[in-house]
Amino acid sequence: MRSLDVVAGWPVDNAAAAVVSADGVVLGSTGDQGRRFPLASVTKPLAAYAVLVAVEEGALEWDQPAGPATVRHLVAHTSGLAFDSTTQQAEPGTRRIYSNTGFDVLAEAVHQATGIPFGRYLTEAVFEPLGMVDSELQGPAGSGAVSTCADLTRFAAELQAPTLLARETLADATTVAFPGLNGVLPGYGMQKPNDWGLGFELRDGKSPHWTGQRSSPRTFGHFGQSGTFLWVDPDAGAASVALTDRPFGEWAIQSWPPFTDGVLAELA
């Protein structure tokens, strides 16, 4: 895919990217697919997927109390917990407050329910079944994973044709939870509304945004402050992963949307 050529011009030392079709075929890639990168918040969809597995297994229930709210509130960033502390900034279900702390509470809920530390549960529930041999949770549940582009293409394939979850479960997770809530999208300011699914950020009508102008409203995924992203566009029948070693900033705001638009144009 020629649209991937622009990655070589990004102002980063190392980058890897790939595009994956809905049937799991890697349509194109660039950079070292086996290089491990810190994912930062691209960890969250992986952690959320483990939570979805735990719910399907019956270990957790969505309306089960966890911390100051419920499992559903936590994974959808509506628990009211602050970004990086245990401060309660709002009543559950009333505001979309993006919270790393909420994922720490989620991880503890999984640990308590299963008796398995969350890092190990994530490995056993998601990484190992998908063959993600170079992926590992090395830090917090919402931001502490490392992975490779090759591994994340496997996850991107899973998000388009689930094998670990019922298709209905993934559909629920990529549909807005607690509709109509406003909130700040890190790096992009206040969004009205700031729609989110169960662990996945939803494109919907947000502007500005880290995906592209051509991205459909059904696009879901996540980006990370370490300079990483993963999106799935069901209307395009494809997903894309990009990992870099430069923290998110103005360079990413300027570079990522044209990259996505180029990929989508080539797919069309």
UniProtKB/TrEMBL annotation:
Residues 16-249 form the Beta-lactamase-related domain. It holds the Pfam family Beta-lactamase. InterPro entries: Beta-lactam-related (IPR001466), Beta-lactam/transpept-like (IPR012338), Diverse_Enzym_Activities (IPR050789). It comes from the Bacteria. Gene3D superfamilies: DD-peptidase/beta-lactamase superfamily (3.40.710.10). It comes from Actinokineospora terrae. This is CubicO group peptidase, beta-lactamase class C family. Transmembrane segments: none annotated.
